[in-house]
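To: structure subgroup
Subject: Chain for Friday's discussion

All,

I'm putting the inputs and outputs inline so they're searchable in the archive.
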Amino acid sequence: MSYEIIVIGDNVDTQEYNNVVKEKNVSLISFNSKSSAMDAYEDIMNYQFKHSEEFLVLNNGLYNNFLIDNEDVKLGTKAPLYGKFLFSNTGCLLINYFENKINCFCSNLTIKFNDFSFDENILNVEFSRNDKFMLVNTENKTLIFDTSNGKIIRSGKYSKCKFDKNESKIYNFDDLNVYDMNYNIIEQHKYKEIASYKSQTFYFIDGKVQKIVYENDNFKNQKLQANVKRIKFLFSDKFGFVYITKKIKENYFYFIEIYQENNIFLINLNYELKDIKVSNDYILTYDISNKITFYKRKVSGFVKIKEICKNDMCIISQSKKVSCIYDYITENLEFYDDCVLRTIYMQRGCNNLAWSYSDLYLSAFSVSSGQIQIFNNNGKLIFKKIFNIFEDFLWRPFYKLEKELKRKISDYSMDEYEQHLNISSASTYNTVCFNSRMEKFSNKKTTISPAEIRTRIIGFKVQGDRHYTTRPYYVIVNMNIAYTFLLLYCYITIFLILNYINDAGNHNNLCT
């Protein structure tokens, strides 16, 4: 028997709800035992989205999970981990794969969500936009899973595949077919490349006629191309960027195109780029002449603001407004705010610069020395540590819960929640579980509204490309402690009364 958790939010897409719950009568999450379901329920409800960043460091076969609260960095969980690891797109799952095995962990990364074994070594693992589906490539096979229950949707020979942004289609780049999520052929496609970020998608058609198509939820923009040799897609929250290399006869030409709803901006480049970083307001480029160029968004498009010439290799990184450059010769880490140098730090043998998902923190790490430094977006050092056998570093995806969504969550109805539960095959268990938790709050005065308390137990929302949960389980924990002491007091009282009765009976027998 499996124990299922159905957690439905206020703004669940109607079509998705019908497909998942009403028609198929399945749960979002399923576990083998009631205890594991209860543990996972609390952990998942407790996980996202708290106001702290997290990052993982793999060191000497152990992962170290660190939490950042403002400028305070603390070590959270720590456990053995071998092989490669990555986070799912929402950050809810940590995937660890080694040789032919995959382990999926959730919550604070100690709860095993699922595991898989294959008869071949694993090459890579990818997720669809909202983590509904997982794609696994082994040496000779491509497999697609339903993430929630581990069911195999497709297993066949190795092929290059891509999920669409709505998680309703799969593009196969070998047979050029488009499949639904049951892997039935819908149509054929002619795309050589597809790149997606949130609601944005680029399609590149390569043939006699070359074309770039840029789509957002509300519009489509496209441009005919010619002589395209190489292409690279990048995204910010507002724009789509394309770095294009064209070959005309024996000459190469380089461009950056910036796509938005009604316009396409063009930047001509003099040299091939080694790297490019983008944001809503800035573009940072590093070319083969070792020149770094800053572009800033104006009304007319992105305008060149500043150039810096370097003597050797560099690493560049760009957040929303802060640029960071690492110079291998000087070993300086330079922070630029609005294209103006603000701060310089030292980092020996830096291998990578990576901004956190909130753009509040930057990591700089060196594989050879094992040194990791974390800076805030003001260029202030907040964490520095040397790991003896450093292997890898990852930021955990992080999203803030917006005020409007908090308001909507607080208005959620318990009756509506129970109505949803009654539709599922596991309704009895879930409803009893839910009501037992609610009873603990029924006669308890708190500073939290009943609707908000209900929400914090329900805790899960699906809207757009994000999964939202609310927190504080401390209320439940404190109340559980109170009930524990009350029960303990009752047991002790009953025990003393029984002993007293027993002693009185023995005394009467002796008198007789």
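Points worth raising on Friday:
DSSP finds seven helices and 40 strands in the chain.
Helices lie at 14-23, 34-47, 403-410, 414-423, 427-442, 450-458, 474-511.

D.
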